[in-house]
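Hi C.,

You asked whether I'd gotten around to modeling the 406-residue construct. I have! Everything is below, sequence then structure, no commentary in between.
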Amino acid sequence: MGRKIYPKAQERLTYIESFPEGQKALDKCTSTPESRYQYAKAMFLFCKDFMHKTPTQIISEYIADIKANQYEGFDKWESFFEDYTIFLKKRFKSGTATYYFAAAKALINANVPHSLRLQAKTPESYSTPTQIITIENLKKVYSMANVRERAFISVLKDSGMSADDALRLTLKDSEGFTKGERWLHIRTVRQKEHVDYETFMGPNAVDDLRAFINLRHRRGENINDESPIFGTTQKPFRRLDTQTLKMIFWNLTNKTGIEISTHRLRKFFETYMALVVRHPIILKYWMGHKIGKGRDVEARYIIPPTPEQLTVYKEAYKNIDLIGATMEDRVKAIEDLTKSLTPEQKQIMEKHGIKMRKSKHEKTQHNGGDCGEQFEQIGETQLLSYLKAGWQIVHKLEDGQLIVKR
């Protein structure tokens, strides 16, 4: 498949494939490993969460009902699928609901003769507002994310940019990043609406982006002003596309059990910044929305100068700050977050190599608590591993590297 498969996705696939009816449906209806996992996920939802029956039980009941009385049988199962449509609409957007509906219907129709196939009506298209991810859930997702995922989360939630706009960003667009500044100014264009706009990124994005860039550099990428912010970490190094970014967040959702997407991060920015930003126009401007009919009026008379915008942004930033601006705050916040995770979430973290900090009073096998002081220079990605081994932070260098001792 070429992509990392997380335990929940594998669990769903294994479950569906463990029944001959599920295996048959997947063989008939999917042509790629990715579609197989997606269809298994949809069938799993239908069987376990809606019908509360196994694929074998569902198919056996369906065939028995249709053979006993076709008219009543079809009516009964069409009614089931009408209820399933309501079930899906309460949980998913229109496209996802339609996909899940089709997978459930395919489970039945792949296992019966053509004359007995169910003709349940596909859900009509509908619109739903983007659900916001709460700051508590975002902190949990962040604590379970790797270096690349954290960088993408922080850049999107700090800037409020859409995925399409963010994917075009290069390091040159993040004014001040190469100078070590903690607050970055971005001037770009909202392609969807052809609007020029400004936005900012704060310490979360700066620290995580620097760690991500350092990781890419260590893996052999030639980093320069034209390097994309949203880039790959393996050769050949390239800019990410929209579908790959969606898959990264889809995998992150599977890994954490918490729904997260680029749209939800944009909504997070809008919602939490609005708690402080009282200017009637500025928040819309930061997100690249059209304001009125003329851009000249927006730029010259309505929108404050950039330094004043940054002042407003800094004041509101506390509402979207996940971990604090200093490295010491960062470590403490990560430690506090891991304490609030469920045993299942902690197990997932360990399984994916995300280490949690041990108590500072715990001695390690390496030093037994009796060695003299040692110093090392490390990258941020190594931080938690070193803390686990009893090291302490001494100093943070301008390039993002850390000096630790024990």
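If it helps when you're writing up: Residues 41 and 290 are 38 Å apart (CA to CA).

Thanks,
B.
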